[in-house]
Amino acid sequence: MKVADYLAQDLEKRGVTHVFELVGGMIAMLLDSLYLRKRIEIISMHHEQAAGFAAEGYGRMKGIPGVAMATSGPGATNLLTAIGSCYFDSVPAVFITGQVNRHELKGNRPIRQLGFQETDIVSMARPITKAATLVYDAADFPRLLQEAFSIAIAGRPGPVLLDIPMDVQGSDLPISKATVAYPPSIESQANPGEFFAQVNSALAKARRPLILAGGGVSSGPVRDLFRGFITRLGIPMVNSLMGVDILPYRHPLRVGLIGSYGNRWANLALSECDVLLVLGSRLDIRQTGADTQGFKGKKQIFHVDCEAAEINNRVRGCVSLVSDLLSFIRAAETELSTWSGDSDWISRISELRMKWPDSSELASVEGINPNTFMHKLSGRSSLAAAFVVDVGQHQMWAAQSLRLERAQRFLTSGGMGAMGFALPTAIGACLASNQPVVVLAGDGGFQVNIQELQTVIRLRLPIKIIVINNHCHGMVRQFQESYFHGRVQSTVWGYSAPSFTAVASAYGIPARSVLHEKQIEAGLESLWEDPLLPFLLEVTISTAANAYPKMAFGRPISEMEPLAKPVAMEGT
């Protein structure tokens, strides 16, 4: 059996149902082997970055590594943004790149390139992967492939890259029982019993406790276990951007989004809490703001994470436990006592929510209120398996205001923050779930991977696309108005966009535009008229609409624009 055939057979055994790629000479043999077995669907995309994002969407929905392939040179380098997205957001994925024949590799020669399109993708990808390897000997391939999948899902999940020269792909494989080096298990650097005792002691005295749950809780098995755990514990939960889908909107303990663009009531609740249990969140600057001392205040913080370096990194003085969350929650079910506080804290959070509703933050905006639109969209989208959200102001309005149901997912690009993420990621998510998926994108970001409309219509995928069109790059335009006296170079000046309904029609996708509030209901009716077909809805909002509330940079998390002003220019 040659290496290419072994790869196809092995992926089948692992339950991989789809592989995403853009064809090129150095992966033609791999694709041919997949095609001949006819058990894995090959999804041909129109850009390698899109193939990588589709694999990410597949991995997020399935909980197993998504697989993307690309040819050598520009094909491989085009994968890097998607690889980085998986790395920063802890998504399991295996990326396979074709490479020139071994005799065409420049090796240690003092030249730039020997083979056509020869590129050292392993060195480029290594900083943003859990492992990156050039497969130089065919005999090593079974072991390296096994390790790739094992490493991708172990500990904090992430991407692995295998670069396979063309002649290795065609080499006969001496089948043997390879010794696989599994990643080491996570070792706690604290006594779990002592940690639980300290948490119980703090909760016994706490009047206003909170749980902050991040992306680490959002993965399937952890999320399901966490829901039962928090219900038993009885402590309200705030979430980071990557944890929007942890609790359904109507769950009595769900508070809301915190951070730079968090719900005002959730940030206020976080500032008032006296005990905070942080699970699966790294407390980055977009969650805490620049004032980490102000974030900590007088509260006790207990932080659980699978990576020791993420704890006491920015916010100091946390009581820590290094553990994977599945093990932690299983232990906590018996070790942590139910919080015995009264209802005053829950009432206080409800009072803050009523005082600062999300739709009132932009009450004076002309035209369609984006937060109100998100309420209506989610109310009409119960058939959607996921909302896949691009990067920009619409991302924040969605995270603030979508009303998710129990089984619905919220997928977005957090750490990488890559525009163009949503459409290709939705393709992977739709194929993984075999259900309709909603895309939310801005007019700027949607143009980055707009070519994947062809993939959507070719496969007739039930992807419902919402383009929030404010005729600018809104997030940076808002930044420019805050710090550059309204000089909006390249966000408004020098920027343009097409008619997205016309573009959709050119691809054969039915479309409709919504220009004002009274057209929303009819637009959503058209969107879901046939749940099994794609549709594009272009929703025009004011160019002046800002993503509010927004943490006033340099101030405590409770002080947010437009009521407070930043004291320094944001560094991120």
Shape: globular
Quickly give the CATH architecture of the largest domain.
3-Layer(aba) Sandwich
Query: Structural class of the secondary structure composition?
Result: alpha/beta
**Rg from alpha-carbon coordinates:** 24 Å
Percent range of helical residues: 25-40%
| CATH class assignment of the largest domain | Alpha Beta
Q: Strand arrangement, largest sheet?
A: 2-1-3-4-6-5
The mean pLDDT is 94
- Which superfamily, in CATH terms, is the homologous superfamily of the largest domain? Thiamin diphosphate (ThDP)-binding fold, Pyr/PP domains
CATH third-tier fold name of the largest domain = Rossmann fold
* Count of alpha and pi helical runs: 24
How far apart are the termini? 51 Å
Work out the number of β strands: 20
Beta-strand percentage range: 15-25%
